[in-house]
Design goal:
This protein is mainly α. It has seven helices and no strands. It is globular, with a radius of gyration of 16 Å.
Amino acid sequence: MSSIFRAARASLAEKVKRHRNKPFLEAMMAATALLALADEEIVLSERLALDYILENVKELKVFDVHQAVNLFRDYGNEVQQDFNKAKEKVLNTVAKFSGDQQKAALLVRACILIAKADGNFSEPEQKVVDELCRVLCLESAKVCKFEEIVEGE
């Protein structure tokens, strides 16, 4: 009987963790989609970088990868339809983490990983990173120096 309670408690804890981290998932997928499309196309290396992020960022591990990829795709579609309107929406979504230096920096580092995945950190991508840093109250030069995105490992 106690194993049933332990399993129920673990399941509830997992759901609470997912609920708490959902805004971060949305911000991460929004920011990475905006960054990936800053140069107007998503290439395979950028998709592979996104997979790496989803597999290695502890706050995102509680989510189904398909849910995350669907959010990325949805934000990507919005960016392709109207870049400026989508950019404002993304910046508003990301701004929620301006008071959390750790998550803010993680968001930007993930975007830098996406940007550099194709071997070319283009000017439009750099502009998006700079805007994200501005909204998150981070100094882009400091964040760009540290590219590791895996926490606690």
